[in-house]
Design a protein that fits this description.
By secondary structure, the protein is α/β, with parallel strands linked by helices. It is built from eleven helices and 13 strands. The chain has helices at about 45-50, 70-75, 95-100, 110-120, 130-145, 160-180, 190-195, 215-220, 230-235, 260-270, 280-285; strands spanning about 5-15, 15-25, 30-35, 60-65, 80, 150-155, 180-185, 200-205, 205-215, 220-225, 240-245, 250-255, 270-275. The longest helix is centred in the middle third of the chain and has 17 residues, at about 160-180. The protein is globular and about 65 Å long. Keywords: ATP-binding, Nucleotide-binding, Transport. GO terms for molecular function: ATP binding; ATP hydrolysis activity. This is ABC-2 type transport system ATP-binding protein.
């Protein structure tokens, strides 16, 4: 069965507010995607449409060429994990695992039990009595053990502490190797998660402003350091970010992939070019001001 995802001119409007604007994406199956955006960028809306929790206001979405909305077969192959309210949930994680197995055809109970043990989660304790961090762990255990061909995590791990998140990241990579499938991870914890992503999607104010492999995305930004007049000369015709001064020296971010000629020119001017991180690129592309769609 084909699980390639296609979104064409997808728009979502809430009353008069545009949550998603003309989203065009093709996501081949069996990759780990990072969906990166600030709070309110539209990440949860995009994922809820993808997971068939709602229809787009306009546009088309298909998975393997089929409309997933109210498609029971396809929906059973999509796992959507998000932050939930467990304040009234009397079941334990073990009882939830048993329930989930009934409608998740690939759910692996043995793997789920291994995760419960690795995370140190109380298996018999009612969910409502667990801490927020433990509840987040329970959510990601269900998501991982479901082994759905399309597995989505919408910041469901945000309540976990750093050691637990590290275990989660390790399990993503290990289980992807054992059981390749599409992972879509939404986050604003860019520097902590960038090593997971094969491809990244930047979402800003409801629009996709970048979609690229992680390696290529990182090459789109560079820091330029040197004397102010020389930096300004090198930056002519390039998009400049915020400039920081250190005496006679300045450092500027350039939204630009330096060519060999650019590097030679920088050397002639006595400038240092240093690589930007994915987080640097994200911060500069989503700052207030003109859009920087790529």
């Amino acid at each position: 069965m084909n699980f390639d995802i296609s979104m064409e001119e997808v728009n979502v409007t809430y009353r008069k507010s545009e949550a998603l604007k003309d989203i065009d994406l093709i996501l081949p199956a069996a990759k780990i995607y990072g969906l990166i955006g600030r709070n309110g960028a539209g990440k949860s809306t995009l994922l809820s449409v993808l997971a068939s929790f709602r229809r787009p206001t306009s546009g088309n979405i298909t998975i393997g060429g089929a409309d997933p909305y109210e498609n029971e077969i396809l929906m059973s192959h999509i796992s959507f994990s998000y932050e939930k309210d467990y304040s009234e949930e009397t079941r334990s994680i073990r009882a939830m695992m048993k329930s989930t197995k009934k409608f998740r055809p690939y759910f692996d109970t043995t793997y789920a039990e291994e995760l419960v043990e690795r995370f140190g989660l109380p298996a018999k304790k009612p969910m409502k009595k667990l801490s927020k961090g433990m509840q987040s762990i329970a959510t990601v255990i269900i998501g991982l053990a479901s082994r759905a061909p399309i597995t989505i995590f919408d910041e469901s791990y945000s309540g976990m502490d750093a050691p637990a998140r590290e275990i989660f990241y390790e399990e993503i990579l290990k289980d992807f190797e054992r059981h390749p499938r599409t992972f879509i991870l939404s986050t604003h914890l860019v520097s902590e998660m960038d090593h997971l992503f094969e491809e990244v999607i930047f979402l800003h104010e409801g629009k996709v402003i970048l979609r690229d492999s992680t390696d290529h995305a990182i090459e789109r930004g560079v820091f330029v350091t040197g004397r102010k007049e020389n930096v300004h000369q090198w930056m002519e015709g390039k998009h400049a970010g915020e400039e920081k001064r250190y005496g006679p020296t300045v450092t500027t971010f350039a939204l630009h992939t330096p060519s060999q000629e650019d590097k030679k020119h920088a050397a002639q001017l006595g400038l240092e070019l240093s690589s930007a991180s994915l987080q640097d690129l994200f911060i500069h592309m989503t700052k207030e001001g003109p859009s920087h769609e790529q």
